[in-house]
Amino acid sequence: MMNCLTCFLGGTSPDGFRTYFGSMIADTDFHSYIIKGGPGTGKSSLMKRLAEAFPDDDKEIYCCSSDPDSLDAVVFTEKKVILVDGTPPHVFEPEYPGAVQQILDLGAYWDTGRLKRSKERIIDANSAYSQHHIRCRRYVKALASVVGDTCHIGNCALNEEKLDGFVKRLSKKILPKKSGSVCGRKEFRQLSALTPKGYLTNIPQGYGIYLLNDSYYAGSDKFLRKFADAAAEKGYTVSISVCTLFENESFEHMLIPELKTAFITADPINDVYTASKQPINFRRFYDKNTLAEKKLRIKFNESAARNLRDEAVLSLKNAKTEHDALESLYIPAVDFDSVNRLCYTLISQIKSLSAE
After folding, report:
1. CA-CA distance, 116 to 328, in Å (whole number)?
2. Which of 51, 121, 132 is nearest to 89 (CA)?
3. What region does 110 belong to: left with phi over 0, alpha with psi -120 to 50, or beta?
4. Phi and psi at residue 72, in whole multiples of 5°?
5. Could you give the 3-state DSSP secondary structure of residue 104?
6. Angle 157-158-159 from CA coordinates, rounded to 5°
7. In 3-state terms, what secondary structure has residue 4?
8. Which H helix or E strand runs over 313?
9. Tens digit of pLDDT for each residue in 252-270?
């Protein structure tokens, strides 16, 4: 049965775009195609066609957080092949050109003369696009400060001894002992991101879901860290998804692919709701008196966080409008017949790479 995981390449953070995908490109077991080219040159469409060309292959699909209907990357996990958009805000360059990574320059297929005639419009749209993203980061930075304050309250109120006991009981219940002493590994897969459509979460299909209901952030973050350690110690590979909207790394979701088990956090930022085999209310791990003392502050933070999140989303919507305008200027200048021929060449190359 074909496995297909959908996630994001990364997401907006207080300091700009944050991603862990670079470690995958650096993996010398994979052959990476790093695609360059401007908006509307067919990067996403090329990756979609290549994904469709191998329908029965296990793969990971990486959506673009600036436009969830577009792709930023496709990873063929068994063929050990990666295709990724290497343009800003996620610039990637080959470390071992040709041997491990190679650049695909779609800019080779555009009519430079036609683009020069649209120079002023391109500059104006690109400038407006950048300004909307700068505005988005300002709101995200304020959001990070607000949720960071609530998380601080949560840390002060958290009963870690009680949480540790729960982690031990649950890990004993759902993590079967594996033969051998091989330690598992921890990797990153971005399931959630701020997008023009809101803060979206890709819920994995076919997984049993544990929904972590946590209004104070601290408990779910520490639970996921501890459970990830416990699973790795028992030999399982775990995929960790962080919330990029925090100043510091905060664990938000986790997958254990071998067990088809997912831990999905629901909090005031993401408003996640999904059918769960066992919802876990994290309020039981916090001291009620400490939370009661900070009740008004927590309530203010929750309202402010949602308002700031919504303004950041609006900024991304406006940025997408400008990006669409840029695409409308580039698309007529691209020789898509050449891009199509490149697609067929890549299909052949990927088949030959997987046969080696």
Report:
1. 14
2. 132
3. beta
4. -105, -25
5. strand
6. 120
7. strand
8. helix 295-330
9. 999 999 999 999 999 999 9
